[in-house]
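Incident log, structure service

09:12 report received: a user says their structure output differs between two submissions of the same chain.
09:20 pulled the input from the user's history:
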Amino acid sequence: MLILLCLPIYALIAKLTFIKYKKFNYTEHLVTMTYLMAHYTIISVLIILPVAILGGNYMEVGMFLNLLLFFMTCYTYKKMYPLSVKQLLFSVFLFFVFAAVIFIILEIIFVAYLFLTGDLQELIEASKASQGL
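09:34 re-ran on a clean worker, output below:
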């Protein structure tokens, strides 16, 4: 569910990352990210579910699969754009910078919302109560 909520954000970040190429619009980036996340989800379920049932460490497998997603994304965008390895690495760095900035902004908006509605104070009090303070 969280992946679905983040897809438009990932597509926006990808669009910002490759804005100088002007080859694909936002909707096409959204389709690309949907494609990548769908494949990642299918592969994850097919691998993690048996590992979890057999008592394996599904968290380690999940970390490996995140690495697989990273390489799948790099491969896909390398096919979409005429990028050298150096340009691809710079684009990956740029993607992470844009992602960090956007998610920090969203987090600030979320905390401000909690503060304005009074839910932040309730969250703090609940946290203190759970710790026995």
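09:41 both user submissions now match this output. Likely a transient worker issue. Closing.
09:42 reviewer note: The chain is about 85% helix and 0% strand. Helices lie at 2-17, 26-53, 58-80, 85-117, 119-131.
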